[in-house]
């Protein structure tokens, strides 16, 4: 294995992943020996408003995809309003390609628990919930164990460490619905309803869980908090870019030699990430990739040197998303990849909004027809027309996200579609499998 | 009400309800449906009636929820629920072939159970393990980096009454036992939470940093937290928060993956 270049290695920022190599760091005793729960003690010595200001000063942006400034989100919670406040952690990791939160909760669950206590103290919440996707049973097991340990040591419950602050924390397993990763659908699900998004406004900051002020943050966002409390905002900003500060866990999957989790300074490029991941596999050359999951428009080899931060990705016509970097090669078909993703959105659409429910249903069928060799040129217009009717016309981002693979693959790989339509490429499905496509 | 649901199950249902703030017991519905599956292996009409009775809501309200979520099964599931990820990344790297091989071997399709009632097959959407692709799970325990032959081997072990060792989990438990965990009961089997070190993909970046001595300089855990201007301001005297931005500006206040309209 050849070594990565010095330039690429310099982009590594082991912060949230620092404890991952320590055996049994998921146990509370080991975590405490590795500076665990020191940030909590430091935070309790500060005023909650000072913690909100600290997070604002750090420039921390949400790690769940949208990149909303975390400190500002916390600051939106009205204080002295006489209502209970809630903190909900979004651990419903399911955006195709995304696989950072599960390993984080497996290796270092107490960093999440500690971050939750600090965040709840800052926004004055006495009840917090971790909504973890149901299928992630192994990670939920670690979390439940960590929460039990934290209660036994007095980090949760009444009068935590003599601070006068009370907090109860529940680990709540979902039941298999991608849509519950959308924060308002998650809240409905947590309240015991179908996981369907709510129209915003009102926002969760004022009408969230049980119609009370609520902060919903991603796992990686909350796990960042203890490090900012310890190292300070200025130190945090030594990593990343001016508008996208800090470290970020990039998840690389697909046709590379060493897929996995690489925590890097925000703004690392794909060229550097590929270098860290041991390069492309033999016989494969980069053809297309997602910067942050299937809901972020595809990029190609011409984007190898675009910094992967929120602004630069937007300027390149895509999004940073969840930094779920899926690498596909010349041996992978962008039309099939798009079809498979649209099948996913079709399956996961909650059915509330007509454009998303019907649009994905029909797009999946049109794509299948194209892959079966029975597509027409008009089908391509139909796909784009469906995307026009989807984008911005549904309550939540699932509908918007579904258009990303379709419009971006048509932008970069229209010839692949035409090859199926004009018979230059062998059909991927037989006509017999085409029931309902026409 | 049938007596499938014993006093022990009712006690557990009440314990689930007690986890949530007073008056918000309906939050217990999702875990309670997992509890029902831990008893019956699926959500039956009796199971829905049980939840409705415990929570004081209607059976229709429970049914609306039970039919929404993929993990609530409407027909009895076998002891072993075999889920193969066939989302794009796993599918391209071999998940599609693995699913095909299992479907042919077992003679069942998606969401179907073998005639002896022991194994249920399904294809799953992204299981958040793309760095271990292709993956499959048995009762939600992961088997990483599988190919069609390995998938067949795992299922044949199940058919022989053996319990294959998951890549990152403890010894397999049955579907009903797994559902009790999902209802929120901690795993108390010896070593079940330990389950060994993380796999190489999880640690790939950390190992590079260790090998080449990369760390982030300037970290001082005693860095002071800036104090507020001291004028005796309590938590409530802060400036009223600005209104959250509307979603239409392309910066939703949410964490969900989204496509900002300015990027189009």
From TrEMBL, chain A:
Residues 335-380 form the NADH-ubiquinone oxidoreductase 51kDa subunit iron-sulphur binding domain. InterPro entries: NADH-UbQ_OxRdtase_51kDa_CS (IPR001949), NADH-UbQ_OxRdtase_suF (IPR011537), Nuo51_FMN-bd (IPR011538), Nuo51_FMN-bd_sf (IPR037225), Nuop51_4Fe4S-bd (IPR019575), Nuop51_4Fe4S-bd_sf (IPR037207), Soluble_ligand-bd (IPR019554). SMART domains: NADH_4Fe-4S. Its cofactor is FMN; [4Fe-4S] cluster. Keywords: 4Fe-4S, Flavoprotein, FMN, Iron, Iron-sulfur, Metal-binding, NAD, Oxidoreductase, Quinone, Translocase. Gene3D superfamilies: 3.10.20.600, 6.10.250.1450, NADH-ubiquinone oxidoreductase 51kDa subunit, NADH-ubiquinone oxidoreductase 51kDa subunit, iron-sulphur binding domain. Its EC number is 7.1.1.-. It is an enzyme of class 7 (translocase). It catalyses: a quinone + NADH + 5 H(+)(in) = a quinol + NAD(+) + 4 H(+)(out). Belongs to the complex I 51 kDa subunit family. This is NADH-quinone oxidoreductase subunit F. It comes from Planosporangium thailandense. The gene is nuoF.
From TrEMBL, chain B:
One of its GO terms (molecular function) is oxidoreductase activity. It comes from the Bacteria. InterPro entries: NuoE-like, NuoE_dom, NuoE_N, Thioredoxin-like_sf. Keywords: 2Fe-2S, Iron, Iron-sulfur, Metal-binding, Oxidoreductase. Residues 186-264 are annotated as: Disordered. The keyword Iron-sulfur applies. Belongs to the complex I 24 kDa subunit family. NCBIfam families: nuoE_fam, PRK07539.1-1. This is NADH-quinone oxidoreductase subunit NuoE. It comes from Planosporangium thailandense. The lineage of its organism: Bacteria, Bacillati, Actinomycetota, Actinomycetes, Micromonosporales. The gene is nuoE.
């Amino acid at each position: 294995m050849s070594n990565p270049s010095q330039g690429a290695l310099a982009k590594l920022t082991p912060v949230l992943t620092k404890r991952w190599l320590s055996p049994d760091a998921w146990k509370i005793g080991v975590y405490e020996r590795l500076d665990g729960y020191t940030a909590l003690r430091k935070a309790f010595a500060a005023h909650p408003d000072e913690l909100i200001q600290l997070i604002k000063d750090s420039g921390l942006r949400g790690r769940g995809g949208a990149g909303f400034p975390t400190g500002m989100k916390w600051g939106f919670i009205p204080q002295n309003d006489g209502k209970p406040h809630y903190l909900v952690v979004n651990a419903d990791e399911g955006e195709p390609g995304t696989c950072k939160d599960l390993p984080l909760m497996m290796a270092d669950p107490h960093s999440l628990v500690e971050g939750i206590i600090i965040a709840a103290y800052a926004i004055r919440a006495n009840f917090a919930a971790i909504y973890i996707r149901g299928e992630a049973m192994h990670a939920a097991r670690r979390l439940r164990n960590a929460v039990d340990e934290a209660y036994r040591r007095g980090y949760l419950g009444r009068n935590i460490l003599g601070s006068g602050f009370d907090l109860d924390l529940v680990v709540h397993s979902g039941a298999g619905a991608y849509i519950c990763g959308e924060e308002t659908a998650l809240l409905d699900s947590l309240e015991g309803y179908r996981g369907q998004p709510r129209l915003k406004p009102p926002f969760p900051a004022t009408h969230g869980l049980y119609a009370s002020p609520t902060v919903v943050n991603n796992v990686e966002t909350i796990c960042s908090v203890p490090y900012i409390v310890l190292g300070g905002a200025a130190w945090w900003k030594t990593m990343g870019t001016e508008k996208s500060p800090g470290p970020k866990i990039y998840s690389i999957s697909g046709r590379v030699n060493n897929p996995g989790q690489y925590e890097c300074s925000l703004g690392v490029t794909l060229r550097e990430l590929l270098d860290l991941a041991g390069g492309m596999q033999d016989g494969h050359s980069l053809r297309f990739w997602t910067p942050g999951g299937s809901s972020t428009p595809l990029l190609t080899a011409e984007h190898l040197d675009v910094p992967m931060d929120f602004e630069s990705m937007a300027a390149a016509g895509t999004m940073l998303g969840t930094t779920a970097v899926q690498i596909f090669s010349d041996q992978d078909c962008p039309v099939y990849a798009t079809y498979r993703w649209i099948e996913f959105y079709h399956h996961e659409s909650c059915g509330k909004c007509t454009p998303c429910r019907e649009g994905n249903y029909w797009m999946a069928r049109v794509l299948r027809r194209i892959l079966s060799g029975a597509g027409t040129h008009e089908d391509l217009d139909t796909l784009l027309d469906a995307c026009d009717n989807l984008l911005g016309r549904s309550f939540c981002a699932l509908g918007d996200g579904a258009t990303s693979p379709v419009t971006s693959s048509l932008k970069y790989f229209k010839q692949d579609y035409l090859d199926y339509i004009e018979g230059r490429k062998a059909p991927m499905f037989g006509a017999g499998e085409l029931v309902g496509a026409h | 009400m049938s007596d499938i649901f014993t006093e022990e199950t009712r006690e557990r249902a009440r314990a689930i309800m007690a986890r949530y703030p007073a008056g918000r017991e309906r939050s217990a519905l999702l875990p309670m449906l997992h509890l029902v599956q831990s008893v019956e292996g699926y959500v039956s009409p009796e199971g829905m009636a049980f939840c409705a009775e415990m929570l004081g809501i209607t059976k229709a309200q429970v049914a609306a929820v039970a039919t929404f979520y993929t993990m609530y099964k409407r027909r009895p599931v076998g002891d072993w629920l075999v889920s193969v990820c066939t989302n794009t990344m796993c599918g391209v790297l071999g998940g599609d072939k693995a699913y095909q091989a299992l479907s042919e071997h077992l003679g069942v399709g998606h969401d179907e159970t073998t005639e002896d009632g022991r194994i249920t097959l399904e294809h799953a959407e992204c299981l958040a393990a793309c760095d271990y692709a292709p993956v499959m799970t048995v009762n939600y325990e992961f088997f990483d980096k599988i190919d069609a032959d390995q998938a067949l081997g795992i299922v044949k072990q199940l058919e022989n009454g053996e319990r294959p060792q998951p890549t990152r989990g403890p010894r397999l438990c049955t579907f009903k036992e797994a559902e009790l965990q999902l209802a929120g009961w901690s795993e108390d089997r010896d070593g079940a939470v330990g389950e060994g070190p993380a796999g190489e993909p999880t640690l790939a970046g950390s190992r590079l940093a260790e090998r080449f001595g990369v760390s982030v300089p300037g970290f001082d855990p005693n860095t002071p937290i800036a104090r507020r201007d001291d004028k005796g301001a309590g938590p409530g005297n802060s400036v009223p928060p600005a209104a959250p931005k509307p979603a239409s500006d392309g910066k939703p206040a949410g964490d969900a993956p989204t496509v900002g309209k300015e990027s189009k």
